[in-house]
Design a protein that fits this description.
The chain is α/β, with parallel strands linked by helices and 356 residues long. The protein has 3 domains: 15-141, Rossmann fold; 152-231, Udp-n-acetylmuramoylalanyl-d-glutamate--2,6- Diaminopimelate Ligase, Chain: A, domain 1, CATH 3.40.1390; 235-354, Nucleotidyltransferase, domain 5 (2-Layer Sandwich), CATH 3.30.420. The protein has 13 helices and 16 strands. It has helices spanning 22-34, 62-69, 82-89, 123-134, 143-146, 152-158, 169-178, 206-209, 247-261, 281-290, 299-303, 313-319, 325-332; strands at residues 15-19, 39-43, 56-59, 75-79, 101-105, 111-116, 137-139, 162-163, 183-185, 213-216, 228-231, 235-241, 268-274, 294-297, 337-344, 348-354. Strands 3-2-1-4-5-6-7 form a 7-stranded mixed β-sheet, with helices on one face. Strands 14-13-12-16-15 form a 5-stranded mixed β-sheet.
């Protein structure tokens, strides 16, 4: 490979485009021009080295190159037969949560087929985009789309909800298809706002009386195995710690408090602390390991918070701040409500707030 080299909303970005025929190369170049930041992979047999185009790479063996590149891109456009695509990617597939989008385009650009990860991966949206580019027809086979019905996995994706039990997506979408009301626990309205009333069960205690259930909450609760559990990103965790506190100790204390308070780790969208901790290795490692961003507030901002519950005379004496973890959590939650006041051990203080 010696040649040099966020699409809109639901489209995967960046995308890789693959071609193995002369017509496919023409289509590939056209699609690459239209898809920002995309990369074109061209069979060495059809590529002319005098062409100087960025992000174009040669390959000798298609299956070997796709094996190397498959999980490096969030979307793939294969300009060759569906049969070839299926045989190559079958061993590479993991789950609908993790697999990149795959769209297959025929050599003449007549059809753009959404093959893998239509909803969560964005293949349905990508197939429509590709069809417009090549003046072809998008082929989408997901039942909810073909019947103009909502898809719970797409609703979850659009609202930033973590899908804790992805194996139950099919149960909810099948209920939509069959016209069966679904029991819904959704106090924030993340799901409800996207569905009409006829999709809901009318039972007063829905989580007990219906077989198809959605539980959308930051709280942990014992539910049936068939329940689709969705986690909204609404919790911020304020953290204070002594110098040199390890990531392991921070993480252990965090998990202990979350378990005690029955809060889901998947609903945490941000860690927060005082700005003098910007170089605190344990905190930075915790943020990196858990893939949760961390924000830092200065003393003036922390002292502006009036709703702290457990001020610290010791911290105020040494740092000039009445509170670190509670104030940081509240600020991170957009001045939200403190739902877990300060907990502490010998090295760590921790508080949790919920987004306003």
């Amino acid at each position: 490979m010696d040649i040099e080299t966020k699409n809109s909303d639901l489209l995967p970005s960046p995308a890789a485009i693959w071609c193995i025929t002369p017509n496919g190369k023409i289509l590939g170049l056209k699609i690459k021009t239209a898809l920002k930041d995309s990369t074109l992979f061209v069979s060495k047999k059809i590529w002319q080295k005098e062409n100087k185009i960025q992000n174009v790479f040669e390959f000798e063996k298609l299956s070997k190159e796709i094996l190397c590149q498959f999980n490096k891109f969030s979307g793939h456009v294969f300009i060759f037969s569906t049969g070839i695509a299926v045989r190559i990617i079958a061993p590479l597939l993991n789950s609908k949560i993790l697999d990149p989008a795959v769209v297959v385009v025929d050599d003449n650009g007549t059809h753009a087929i959404s093959l893998i990860s239509g909803h969560l991966g964005g293949a349905n949206a990508l197939s429509k985009k590709i069809a417009r580019i090549v003046c072809g027809t998008p082929v989408i086979t997901t039942a909810t789309d073909t019947n103009n019905l909502p898809a719970i996995d797409l609703i979850a994706k659009d609202n930033g909800l973590f899908i804790e039990t992805p194996q139950n997506i099919k149960l909810i979408n099948m209920a939509f298809l069959m016209g069966k009301p679904v029991s819904l626990f959704d106090p924030f309205g993340f799901v409800k706002i996207n569905l009409q009333k006829n999709f809901f069960s009318k039972n007063k205690t829905p989580m007990e009386n219906s077989s198809e259930k959605i539980f959308c909450s930051y709280k942990t609760k014992n539910v049936s195995r068939e329940t689709l559990i969705l986690r909204p990103p609404v919790l911020s965790v304020g953290i204070g710690c002594n110098r040199g506190t390890s990531c392991k100790e921070l993480k252990q204390f965090l998990f202990k408090i979350l378990k005690k308070e029955r809060l889901s780790i998947k609903s945490i969208y941000e860690f927060a602390t005082v700005d003098i901790k910007k170089d605190e290795t344990g905190l930075l490692d915790l943020s990196k390991e858990m893939k949760i961003p961390i924000v830092f507030f200065d003393k003036k901002k922390l002292n502006s918070v009036k709703s702290i519950i457990t001020p610290s005379q010791m911290v105020e004496k040494h740092l000039g701040i009445k509170s670190v973890c509670e104030a940081a959590a509240i600020l991170s939650a957009n001045n939200g409500k403190l739902i877990v006041p300060k907990n502490k051990n010998k090295d760590v203080t921790l508080a949790v707030a919920i987004k306003k």
